[in-house]
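This part of the workshop introduces the protein records we will be handling. An example says more than a description, so a record of this kind follows:
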Amino acid sequence: MKKTFAFFAFLGAMAFTAAQTITFDNTTLDYGTVKQNSDGNRVFTVKNTGKKPLIITSVKPSCGCTTPDFSKDPIAPGKSGHIKVHYNTAITGGFQKLIEVFSNDPENSRSVIYIKGNVLAAGTPETKSVTNTARKK
């Protein structure tokens, strides 16, 4: 009985290791400080590090100010795909938004990626930090 259980446990583990696996080059994209109405497009790279095709089934932003776009085509093992994200830079101020990515990865069917940054109102001067490098005598 113990051998039978161990055999099926091994088969189950093998099924997961042979499955598709979603990985991201970066789970947070920092826009930094951008001007109002500037380019709000950014791209996440998604890689399939598993042995079967990875399918992204859905990408859902946390609010209407963020619009994702992604390919519905399967990502072959060892290959990469992209999730394009557009943030509405007409909205000023700091932001941090999450985006849910749903896939057929059996161990991680829901992944979360983030965008963050700060949008300056038009006409607002950018502030730069200054470091005092003068030496005291």
Observations:
- Residues 25-120 form a domain with the Immunoglobulin-like fold (CATH 2.60.40.10).
